[in-house]
Every structure is written in structure tokens, then in C-alpha cells.
Amino acid sequence: MLRLPHFQVAAPETLEEVVEALRATPDARLIAGGTDILPNLKHKLEAPPRLVTLGRVKGLRGIRRDDAAGVLRIGAGVRLSTIASDPTVGALFPSLAKSAGLVASPTIRNMATIGGNVNLDVRCRYVNQSDFWREGIGGGCIKSEGDVCHVVPKGRNCVAAMSSDNVPVLISLDASLLLVGPSGEREVAMADYYRADGTNHTKAEPGELTAEVRIPLPKGPRQTDYVKWAVRKSIDFPLVSVALRVDLDGEGAEAKITDVRVVVGVLGAKPREVTKLDAAIGRTLADPEVAALVSEAAFKQCKPLPNVPYDPAYRRQMIRVYVRRALAAMA
Amino acid sequence: MPGEDRERDWQIGKVHRKVDAMERMRGITRYTDDIKLPGMLHAKILRSPHAHARILSIDTSEAEAMPGVFGVVTGKDFTIPYGIIPWTPDENALAVEKVCYVGDGVACVAAVDEDTANAALRAIKVEYEVLKAFYDPEEALANRDKALTINPYARKGNLSKHVVLEFGDVDDVIDNSDLVVEGDYFFEGTTHGAIEPHCAVAQVEGNGILTVWSATQVSHYLHRELSKVLEIPPHRIRVIQPPLGGAFGGKSEPFDLEFCVAKLALKTGRPVKLLYTREEVFYSHRGRHPMKMKYRTGFTKDGKITGVAAKTILDGGAYSSFGLVTTYYSGQLLCAPYDFGAYRFESTRAYTNKPACGPKRGHGSVQPRFSIEIQLDKAAAALGIDPIELRRRNDLGSDTKTVNEFRVGSNGFVECLDKVETASRWRERRPTLPYGQGLGVAGSTYISGTNYPIYPNEMPQAAVQICLDRSGRARVFSGANDIGQGSNTMLAVIVSEELGIPLDDIRVLSADTDLCPVDLGAYSSRITLMVGNACLNAAQKLRRKVCEAVAKRWEIPRKRVVLAQRMALDRENPERNVPSAEAFQWAEADFGLLGEVGSYNTPKDRHGDYRGGTIGASPAYSFTAHLAEVEVDPETGLVEVKTIWVAHDCGKALSKRIVEGQIEGSTYMGFGEAIMEQHVVDPAHGGVHASPSLLDYRMPTFLDTPTIDAMIVEAADAQGPYGAKEAGEGPLHSSIPAIANAIYDAVGIRLDTLPFSPPKVLAALEERRRREEAGELAPHKADRRDARRSA
């Protein structure tokens, strides 16, 4: 078995103690379910002196509907299996229940948390390997111990792939994150949280942690979906990952589209929101033009990279197919 | 006679719980890695980051000086080369002069724990002179620069083995055929993926005997090679195989770790353990050879095969492993279940700078089977003959000889075809399934062990010793390796059948070279037939003694005594009976301690006299038919295999559920190779393994796996115990071409290269659409397109 590096563990019980623990050891890393960080530690992608476990922090638990604020609050420590089967999440945000239920495998979903998943490190076929393997490709890359990129030759920017199933969905739902840090709390829209730099792919400041995911309650009728393609029906990270949301002006087949949101993952480090979908507005979901023009826009704007397995051209083509099918299924 | 029947039926063919099932299910089985000995050290191997390099120097001084480090070994400690095939000893336990692939072992450290050993590995300084590496077998073969010969022991450059055998005037026969089908095929490399990584522990006992526990499927060969490399006589070495977590051919030969722990235990005087990481399991590999195959097959207009000509390039990786045999098998095992009059194969194995290939379930013959079964499907389409009917017309039959002069006994192939045809409702459904859905069929054969052992000798291939005791129990000593296939249970079933005691009263002690008679190991599907025969031989001797002792006391003829249900009974008066324990005591009083040995050797008259004619010859052959139903998504290229019906002729199922499990597991494994598995290196990045983890080397999950309908066919063979033949490997072969042929039926594309990944399927679909639009091809299932989703 691959060995974990040695580290100390802190087990605070309150958010304040977590912040204090991070302040005391600036290179410390947080651990919740551990399904992402532990393999990365075994691969020697980082070697923090201390892990701060969130397992005892009661303030990170629970799913609460806050009608006053018009949001659903999901504690960062809520397990993905809980989200996948939670009746409130299922009723209000079916695409999130679906994406949470498609992550990895049942055993991993029983450990992994939503806070960990929205902070999932970006992944690349040349990064997520043992240190021995990375030595074999010539000493790693800009995200590990080297200074080159094996995905984009001569590239200076890390393009490791955002591989969370839930992030595209949460962005499509206009979710935000409550970050808690040394200078207090702040709320950041998830659409603004990610950066196109795989070596530093979120805007969390040093010492900050994600305490809560807030999702605005739906204001009107809408259809949502999440589409994932991976080689296997379980275990795998997505190779095609698309969240869709279509807002409607009413119920029934005659309802007109008021907004279309399409967010695509597994491109570079940042999910991409497909733009220029205005031509769909005012049409009905039954109008075949909607699926055609939205899928075509997604195809044009999304360019998968060889940072994960399977031919990027094929994956790009599949974005079009799956977006079109998902929209057609909503009609 | 009812009496006879009852006795024979008492265990054979029943459903049994495997003798080790409860321990495994409860998680209390002690695998090799569970062995913990006082003072035990942990070893790790330093591996080459280069695919091809000369070692200029190794400096281990800093590592040796580290606290907690007890011993370091390098290639200098293992200068005697070894190899599972005695004619091709071409590897050293650790690299002596050069490294031949990324992952080749260079040095090994034993330390107080794995972390210390790993730290010491980082302190070892190795200077390499990097050489040009070869990843393509044909490029490797074309190399004329001696400095770039990959394997240091190779005598013919990068040529590992070349075989040409011809039977009849093939070219003439094919040229004069009504139909000639030509095809180029590529079978991608795949690996075993056993859940348990390789692990070995060594200890020097107080009396100086070296004991090695290893997760191996060939303890006898390991014993021999340890003796050779370490220069210790075999009687001073004991090899024990603890319960195994799967092998599938991936543990069929000695590996670096076994020599390293043994040497380090000798050097340090402490027990030493080494457990591979999953990544190291991928490097040790010995999996399925990638094969590039060119086939030319002639047919009469009635669909009879006239002749087959095959030309095959095998990509061998850095070492020979079983490669000499694989090269023969790639041609020799193709000559059943179909009868053809003329045959030629030319197979060439090349060394390349990759993990060495070797035997994986269905060794050497899964790849050519893929080609020939697609060739038959192409012929069926061209001639307008139903693919099952075409196969029936070419049936080899039983008690006959193949074109390459192998004698075949029982043959249940046609019954296998009948079963899958009926179960799938092929005749009604195939003509009506809409575009996108299809059924495909394929057949195959496999050996039940090889007539000749790996090293030439005239001793038995298998031997078993059985002792009965006064409490009514039996102890069975067998050198055979139970690798999860259930061979210990098979032995218990035979002893149970013959001696009338239940499985719970039988203790099978296996694969310990100190306690058990020699057995050659778990490979080439030999155990049921060979070890089963040896066991039956010993059990029947004991049975005669027990029956005689009972008959004497009851004053009846011996043949009237029946042993069953933990009793001895009078066949004509079942009310008269005694418990087994008492019967055994009577026999012990009459004959002394009840112990018998049995052995088995193969018949030597079942192969041709030509050079190589013994390789691939077996006492008995199993037969299989697979029928797959697929649905192909024409927009994404995704192939969903919905159901695979499989019928396998195993001669006689000694234990029904275990045979079904082998059929299902084999079919699943073939399905994975068909749809997703790819064991490849990345030439653009220094030849590193493209997917050295179970996340990146994708094998199907439960959710991906089709419904498998496993059916048993029993064409009893005179060579097998109770008629039994093999069941562990044969049912893999035709799984793959059946899926390929079903995809053709569904959407009209031929996939002659593996795996059938969605991008490849989609590209083939687009090519077909282009040709249809250009008028070169008629639209596939043009009349069945509208109803696509309805069936």
C-alpha cells in the first residue's frame, strides 16, 4: 500500500477553534471525509505538518431551509450520501440530489462531504499519480514538483480539471459559499469562487474554510438536470459533466423559457458557464430549436483538454449530445 | 441401479459451500500480508523511472547507514538469471546491468518499517545512461543496433520467439475456396486485476531452513527457482502459499519480491515481508499480450472452413515470462472447435520496453479466438448463413484429431450452441431486433492442463496423499494452489464422494512444499483433471480398504458396501449401517494407519510428432459458446451489453455452483476486456504506465456488468475424474468476439480492434454513415430503424 506521510492532527470542536488551528499552523490542511486529500497525500502532492479534522465540528452539520433568507443552508460537513437522499434537497434541487448521488461510489459518498467536494482539488492524468510515476515523466509538472505542463506543451498555467460533480450544479443554482476565516465571515457566489489556475483554483484566502453552502430557493417553475458521462457507472470521476437549469414563466407545455443556465465541468480548472443563450428565451421547452441552439452553443464554447482520459474531441462532441438530450427530456 | 446412482450422486454435481468460504466472508482468512512474525522487517524495492537504460553505478552506502535499515540488496546479489520456462531464463531478481521498463527493480531495502525502507530507497543513488526505448514490437524487431537490444540475455536481438507451423497446403486451399475472408485484428493488452497485491514473507528457521510464504499460484516452480537463484538446495527451502485473493495468471511465476525477501532474510537473520503497492502490481503485470493478427480464411459456399492462415505479432514486454509458450499457444490452440483441413500460423514475439506480458486467464488463445470468430461472422454475413448454423457445419466432433494432430475426446460444442440459441431466443429475436440492438455468437475451446510439464521429467504431473483418522475425518495433502477457483473444495468433494463423509469432516492442506506432495500449480486449467484424478486414485484405494473391513464384519461382498451420509451401509439392506468413524476404525484395525497416495500422469499419445507438437496438447478439451445481446447508442458510441448467455462443456460439473461461478467470472472478465480494459504505456512520456491504479485502469463494476446466464453442458470425458474437464478459463474466450459480432448485428460496424471504447465505436459508426450516404453500402437494418426503442 502507498504510505501516508507523517502529520499531526488537530480535532477542534467549534468553527472558532478551526480558524484558530489554521492560524496556528498556516500550512495545515483541513480534512473532512478525507476522500480527496488522503489519496493526494499518499501521492505526495502535498505534505502538511498538520491536518485539522472537521469531524467534531457540530456547527458544520445539518440541512436547514431558511425561508426568511430565501435559501437552503447545507452545512459543509453534510455527507454526499445524505444530500443525495435528503427529501428537501430532492424536492427543491433535484439536479443536486442527482449529482451528489453520482459521485464515486456509495462507500465514498458515505464519507465525502459537500464542503470537501466544492473544494475538491482539480485533477489531471499527469498529477494524480505516485511521486515515482511523476519522476518517470521527467519530474512532475507545474502542479507538482516540476515546471512544465504535459497537457498544454509550453503552457505556464495549470489546466488540471475541475472534477466535482456538484460544483457545476451548484453554480447553475446560483449557490454561494459561506467562508469563515481570521477576518470573520464572507459570502462568495460559487460562480465567482473558482479561478482558472489549477495550482490555486479557489479564491479561499489562507486560513479560510467553507462553512456552509447556500442555495436560493426556487422563485418559480423550472427544470434542472445534471449529466455525467464516465466510462463506468460507478467509481469514476466525470469525463463529461454538465449542469442545466431552465427557468419557466409558468407550468405546463406552453410555459415560456425565461432563463437558461448551462455550466460545464471537466474542462480546465474552472467550470465554464455557457453564454449567449438568449435566443432560447421566450420559446417553450417543446420547441426543438431550444435543444439545438443551446447544445450548439455549449459545443462551441467548451473545449475539453487531454488532462483526463478519452479523446477531447469525442468529449466535446458528447457535450453537445448530452445537452441536447437533457433539454429534450425536459420537454 | 438405484443403489449405484445414489452413491454416485451423493456429492458429485451438487452445490457446495467452498471449504474456505465462511472464513473469507467473515474477513478472518489470513492472507500473506496478515502474517506478522517477531522482529519482522519490511522491504521495499527501488524501481527504474526509465524505460530503457544502462546502470552505470549504484551507491547504497547512504541507505545502508540509515538508522532502522537492516539490509540492502541489488542485482549483484542475484546474478543467476531465472525464468518460468527453463529455456528462457532472461531476468534477474533485480537489474544487473540495465533496466528494461519503467518499474524494473533495481535495489531492495529491508528496514524496521515501510516508511524507513522508503526513505532509504530515496537515499540510494543510481546513475543511468538512458537508451532509446522501443514501445512498438515491429520497431523493436527492426532494430539492428546491438547496443539497443532490450533484454540482456536475448540471443536474437529483440526477437523473443518465432514459430511457424503449417499443416497442409494452406495457400492453395484458401486460393481455391469459394470465399476468402481477410482481416487485420488487434487485441489490446490487459492485466489481471486480482484484488490481493503480490506479497511475500521469508524467514530463516532455527534449523537453517528458509521458509517463504508467497501469494503465488505456482509454489513448486517458485521453490525450484529460489533454489537456483539463491544457490540453496531445495530440501533447505520451504514454500507455503497462504490463501490467495485472486491471481488469474498474474502470480504464475516467481517475482522480484520473493527473491528479495528470501535474500534479505538470509542476510539480516530476521523475517522480512514485502507487499507490493497496487502500482507495483501493474508493473509486475505478466498479463495478456497485445497481438496484431492477420487472418486469411477460406470457405466453401456452404460455409465450411477450408483453410486458415494466420500471422501474428506478439508484444512481449521486457522479459520472456511464459512467452515461448504464448507464442505457440497463439496458433496451436485455434484448431478446435472447428474442423479445417489446412492451417498455417506464424507467430513472432518481440521484446519491448514495457512490463512483461505472460499468461492471463485463457493464456495465448483469447487473442486468436477474437480474430477467428469475427472471421466466421464475416463469412456468415457474406454467405447469408446463420452464424450459429455456420458454426454447427464446422463442428469438429468428438473422438477425433485436429488439423495440428491433437487428439480430442469428448466434445459438447454443438450442445453449447443449442443451449445459447434456445435461451436467447436467437431465431425469433435476431431477425426482428431493431437498428441499434443486436445478437452475436461465438464459440471456443480450451485445454484441461498441458500434456507436458514446464520442465521435462517423467514423474507424475499431480499427486495427492490422503489420511483417514479414527474420528471419521480425512486429511488431504495436495501441492495444488487454491487461488480462489475452489481447488481445495474440489478435492474435498471427491474425497467426500468416495469415502462417504461430508465436506465439513475433510481438511485439505495444500500448497506447502514441506507437507504436501509436489503439484505443478494453478495454471493452464489443469487442477480439476490432473489433481482430481490423483485424488480420486488415492481416495478409491482407501475406499476399497474401508469397504473391505466393513464387508468382512457384515459377511457380505465388498461391492455391497456403500459409503455415504457419514455412514457405511449395506446396499441391499440400508437399515444395516455404521457411522463412518467406526468403519474407519475397523479398517485401521485391519490395515494399519489409513493413508494412501494417488498420482496422475498425462497420456503421451495425444499430440503430433512434429517440433512443438506437444505444446498445447491436453488430455481433454472444454468447449464454450457465448451469445451476447447489445444495444449501441448511435450518437455516443456507447455499447451496453445487456445479457450474455454462455454454455460451457466442462465434462462433468463436480461442484455446480463453483463451475457456474467460473463461467460467470470468465465471461465478466472477457466483457471487461471487450469494452474498456487497456494495459498500455505512454510513449510520449518516457514509457510510463498509462494507468497504474484501479481508478485509472478501468475494469467494469457491478453496475456495468450484463446479466450473465451461465449454463453447464456435460460431455463427460474419459480422461477426467468422473468425466470432468476444465471450467476456469475456457468460458472467457468467446465472450469478446460474441460482443463484437453483436455490435455488427446491431449497427453494421466491424470492430476488429479492442477495446470497443465509445470514441472508437462512434468513429466506426460515422464511417459507416459516410459510406451509406455515398451509396457504397446499403443502410444497415434499413427496415428496422423506426422501431428502434420499441423492442
The residue fraction in helices of chain B comes out at 25-40%
Sheet with most strands of chain B: 7 strands, mixed
User: Helices and strands of chain A: which structural class?
Assistant: alpha+beta
The tally of helices of chain A reads 12
* Helix count, DSSP H or I runs of 4 or more residues of chain B: 21
- In percent, how much strand structure appears in the residues of chain B? 15-25%
Strand order, sheet with most strands of chain A: 4-5-8-6-7
Shape of chain A: globular
Structural class, from secondary structure content of chain B? alpha+beta
Radius of gyration of chain A: 20 Å
Task: Tell me the radius of gyration of chain B.
Answer: 27 Å
Can you describe what's shown?
The complex is a heterodimer of chains A (331) and B (791). By secondary structure, chain A is of the alpha+beta class. Helices cover 29% and strands 20% of the residues of chain A. Chain A has helices at residues 15-24, 37-42, 80-85, 87-92, 94-101, 106-111, 114-118, 131-136, 166-172, 190-193, 288-301, 312-330; strands spanning 8-10, 29-31, 50-53, 63-66, 71-75, 176-181, 184-189, 209-216, 222-229, 240-248, 257-265, 272-273. In chain A, strands 4-5-8-6-7 form a 5-stranded antiparallel beta sheet. In chain A, strands 9-10-11-12 form a 4-stranded antiparallel beta sheet, with helices on both faces. In chain A, β2, α2 (37-42) and β3 (50-53) form a beta-alpha-beta unit. The mean pLDDT of chain A is 97. With 791 residues, chain B is α+β, with helices and mostly antiparallel strands. The A-B interface holds A 1-3, 6, 105, 125-126, 129-130, 132-133, 135-138, 150, 229, 231-236, 309-311, 314, 317-318, 321 and B 47, 49-50, 102, 114-115, 118, 197, 275, 277-279, 635-637, 676, 682, 685-689, 691-693, 695-696, 698, 700-704, 757-759, 762.
